[in-house]
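Late entry, alpha-D-glucopyranose complex.
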Amino acid sequence: MHVMDPAAEAFIKVCSDVLEKNAIDGYTVPSRHIYPHQWLWDSCFTAIGLRHVDIRRARKELRTLKRGAWSNGMMPNMIFHESFLNFDHTLWKSKSLKEAPRNVSTTCITQPPMLAEAVFRVGQSMPKAERLKWYRSMLGCIKDYHKWLYTERDPDGDGLVVQLHPYESGMDNSPPWMYVLSRMNHPWWLKIFNKHSIKIIINHFRRDGGFVPVSQRIGLRDALRSFYAIKELAKRKYKYANGDKNQVVVQDLMFNCILIRANKLLLHMAEATGEKLPSELTDAFASTEQSLEKLWSHENNRYYSRNFLTKRLIKQDTLSAFMPLYAGCISKSRAEILARRLRKAGEYGTDFPVPSVPLDSVHFRKRKYWQGPSWANTNWLIIQGLKNYGFDSLAGDLRHSTLLMIARSGSYEYFSPLDGAGEGIQDFSWTASLAIDLLKTD
Ligand code: GLC
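Prediction complete; structure with ligand written out below:
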């Protein structure tokens, strides 16, 4: 579909309406129904599309994220809207920690560092003089955030940062994370809740179940384990604790790939504005790129996330395997291995790719959240990655199938990789916004 096509223009209008509907107090919620707060990487993806239709709103979307920044630089994955304070908010109690902001309540963990990419793309849609001003206004926050990642989340100083909860990966119930959660020492109450009859009762009262069939959401066992992991993390003030075995500590593949790209953009934007980044920070950037090799398995010819506690790769396949393309720091021959795999039928090569888990995995469920469905945001990242390595025709095919599933079904949260049917919640912001970006950029 060409940008000047009337059909494309109509499609953009439909997507813009979704973003309009989800606008609240200067930012955009992922969905009015089950996600009534501000999420970190959601707002970044939203701004990337919004810049084409309303640049002022795109800028504001990112500026509002600064409200949530902690004094130590941490950017939380959620900033709660005070009109919808509920269980989620009381669970975290961010204000009991001195580094958390006083004016808003937030979670105490982060999400993939997409902020630099969003600030950069929004800047690209502005005239140069304005762009530099824009970069200057956002650079401090990005710099502090990346500094925090390296000081607080790189315990062995190898450049790969660790994540302490599945929510930090952005892919809540992804198999590698569910695997590490399953290795924790679970308390008695978790075992009781897991009994079949009790599960049925709890599922009945689930908040998300009111809008989306429970079968399309995170499974109850995994949700309870995630909840338990938050409680454990709270005991340690949401920090990595050296020597503690009952914690989850993962060098997540997608997170680190996004960080590599974000570091490059941070450097680029700093240079453009005449700012020099401290050498400790740029040295850390270089070590992340080098250490990505630790996530490569020669035996399996693919990348995986790594369990920091055991120093072993978590050999569960997910679409994160393609994120080194987006990082842009791997060799062309490695990139070719990844691109070949993307097309492979019976794995990731479906009619509506890219499935979050490949078809040949025992964990594949075509409707279950991050355990099978295709998502617009991860497709967008893979498309940029394919372009980085000149796989333009593959990138074009993925762009086309992504737009097709959204055009046919609507701005759903995720889609069946088999027939492109929309699943999860309707009118989901990043799907609408990234469709606009894909339509506006070839
Ligand atoms: C879910 C997703 C996460 C997203 C959030 C809001 O938790 O796993 O990636 O940011 O919903 O859309």
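The first helix runs from residue 6 to 21. Will revisit in the morning.
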